[in-house]
Amino acid sequence: MAASITASPLQSLVSPPHYIRPTFLMCPPQWYDVDYAINPWMASNLHRSSRDLAFTQWKALYEALQSVADVRLLHPEPGCPDLVFLAHGAVVHHGVAALSSFSHNERRSETPHLRAWMEQHGFLLWNTPRETAFEGEGDVLFNATGTELWAGHGVRTCRSSHRHVATAWHVPVHSLHLVDPRFYHLDTCFAPLAGGYLLYYPGAFDAASLELIEAAFPTTKRISVSESDATKLACSALNVGNRIYIGEVSDSLAASLQAHGFDVERLALGEFLKGGGGAKSLALRLSDLSTTHGMVADISERRSPAEGSAFL
Ligand code: ARG
Fold it and tell me: Is residue 247 within 6 Å of ligand 1 at its C-beta?
């Protein structure tokens, strides 16, 4: 196993990036389509998505996110209809990007595009061997303080990749077993939130995983979602400080999040639900967690223009 961080020649000129504002990377859905089925959501929606509507929905999230974060853009690529779900391309922390090794052939052509962007922007790259599937923030998520990882296995990501990925930052990793094919990525059923909260759907995990979750997150910090909200991919919630961007979840879930101090913005993201993704999967976090969650209040005053908006 090639357990080393690689640096491109450019990195003798560029030091790893350190963002001082919440920063995300998104990819416009110019080539988005449900033209293969690699999850149960796609199987019932083959060729049923509208690219125009997807673009409108994506843009609403992009614009909303810009009120609390800087958003960089990756150029969309023909032949990569799922590249819009950019959060699955990597996990980023402290200037190191652990790049995905997609389980399905259909998504493997995405990685060179993200790799090139990461290299150009000075990230140190942590590679995962081809034979060991790992799907970025789809299955590997930091806790809110960036001190430990939670990692899913059972559908896409191999359990054996968990330790390898955690070694990139020398942090502990807790492995969780996903048992419901509708929740094929950890980020479809588990979202660590600012303040040490957890939004999750218990039905997606086996008993041993639930024990681990319950031992780590006290009852007062666990926000469990109903099956009905879970199937709107409520747990694919994009969280920046006290702000949460989420799909069209129930009033009761929105109220519960608000009661825990979150400012909730519900967005229509139905075209992406057809592909099996929610709000969080559309944006890859680039800034460290302390920055992402730490300075929301005054961020809209100091936001800089979006990079790469020329192709929107
Ligand atoms: N079609 C993509 C896939 O199956 C969708 C990814 C969205 N996933 C998610 N975890 N929210 O890989």
Answer: no
